[in-house]
């Protein structure tokens, strides 16, 4: 087990600079437990990097997503539906207004 | 990329937005799923489901959070759902082929002095939140910021979990070396 005073510095050993690095190096020269701990940390770091680094989605992932969407979402809502509904709404308003004008036209012809 | 996706979403051009975000986020979403689920095959399945959920939710994106934050939130919730379902269904049998395969595929790592330690066993013995942080940290090029963002954890928490996990792993590695040394000494006496 490492010395408590140096455990945190040993964890961050690669990033240590200045006084903290000098103090840690001086301690490592005389403490076999901390040297062993630092070595174990380095081994863990190397093993974890080898285990997890460069992980990427498998080749063909995008196509797999798109195929899955086709299977699961056959009646996919078209993204322009809100615009269609807006158009239908406004068309209805215009049609109603035109109908009212047509019906009320004779009553509105003032002075003729 | 973030801004391009946001502008298309604001204009309700969902198809175009999805065609941008799928390639942009596929690897990060996959890595996050790997870290949370601990299994590549399950992560691939979950990652596909995550993008289906993203597509369905595009119309509800209001821009309060960044696109990446929003995507990672959907990804985490989907993975948590998978984990909860697995916990409810889990019946481990001695004949379970998945258990045998996992045991056969265990990564046993050799150190420079010939000491072997079972990395997968050590990772499996870590608390779940420590394991997720460790896995994602090494997948994301040792970026505390990226881990904090994807797992929605404070930076300090990420560093603490990582330090504790590495301390546990280092202690196990040292113990393995000690046992190896004891075994070698015993063999030499013969």
Throw out a few tags for this protein.
heterodimer, A: 112 residues, mainly alpha, elongated, B: mainly alpha, two-stranded antiparallel sheet, 3% strand
Describe the structure in your own words:
The complex is a heterodimer of chains A (112) and B (190). Chain A is mainly alpha-helical and 112 residues long. Chain A is 71% helix and 0% strand. Chain A starts with a helix and ends with a helix. The model of chain A has no long low-confidence stretch (mean pLDDT 86). Mean pLDDT of chain B is 85; it is low at 94-106 and 110-115. In chain B, helix 2 runs antiparallel to helix 3. Chain B has a two-stranded antiparallel sheet with strand order 1-2. Chain B is elongated and about 80 Å long. Chain B is built from nine helices and two strands; from the N terminus they run H-H-H-H-H-E-E-H-H-H-H. Chain B starts with a helix and ends with a helix. The interface between A and B is large, with 35 and 40 residues.
User: Can you count the beta strands of chain A?
Assistant: 0
Shape field of chain A: elongated
The arrangement of helices and strands of chain A along the chain is: HHHHH
- The helix tally of chain B amounts to 9
| Amount of helix of chain B | over 70%
Task: Give the SSE order of chain B as H and E letters.
Answer: HHHHHEEHHHH
Unreliable parts of chain A: none
Give the low-confidence spans of chain B.
94-106, 110-115
| Main beta sheet strand tally, sense and closure of chain B | 2 strands, antiparallel
Please give the order of strands in the largest beta sheet of chain B.
1-2
Distance between the termini of chain B: 67 Å
Distance between the termini of chain A: 106 Å
């Amino acid at each position: 087990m490492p010395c408590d005073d140096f455990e945190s510095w040993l964890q961050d050993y690669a990033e240590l600079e200045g006084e903290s690095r000098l103090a840690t190096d001086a301690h490592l020269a005389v403490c076999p437990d901390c040297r062993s701990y630092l070595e174990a940390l380095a081994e863990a770091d190397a093993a974890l990097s080898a285990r997890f680094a460069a992980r990427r989605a498998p080749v063909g992932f995008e196509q797999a997503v798109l195929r899955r969407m086709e299977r699961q979402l056959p009646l996919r809502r078209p993204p322009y539906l809100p615009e269609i509904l807006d158009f239908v709404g406004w068309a209805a308003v215009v049609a109603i207004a035109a109908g009212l004008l047509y019906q009320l036209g004779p009553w509105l012809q003032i002075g003729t | 990329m973030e801004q391009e996706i946001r502008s298309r979403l604001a204009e309700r051009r969902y198809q175009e937005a999805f065609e941008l975000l799928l390639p942009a986020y596929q690897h990060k979403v996959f890595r996050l799923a790997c870290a949370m689920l601990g299994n590549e095959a399950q992560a691939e399945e979950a990652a596909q489901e995550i993008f289906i959920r993203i597509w369905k939710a595009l119309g509800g994106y209001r821009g309060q959070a960044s696109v990446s934050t929003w995507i990672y939130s959907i990804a985490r919730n989907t993975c948590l759902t998978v984990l909860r379902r697995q916990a409810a269904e889990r019946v481990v049998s001695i004949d379970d082929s998945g258990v045998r395969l996992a045991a056969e595929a265990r990564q046993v790592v050799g150190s420079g002095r010939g000491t072997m330690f079972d990395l997968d066993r050590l990772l499996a013995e870590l608390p779940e939140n420590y394991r997720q942080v460790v896995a994602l940290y090494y997948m994301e090029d040792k970026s505390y910021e990226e881990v904090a963002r994807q797992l929605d954890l404070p930076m300090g928490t990420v560093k603490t979990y990582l330090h504790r996990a590495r301390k546990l792993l280092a202690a196990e590695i040292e113990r393995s070396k000690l046992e190896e040394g004891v075994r070698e000494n015993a063999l030499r006496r013969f």
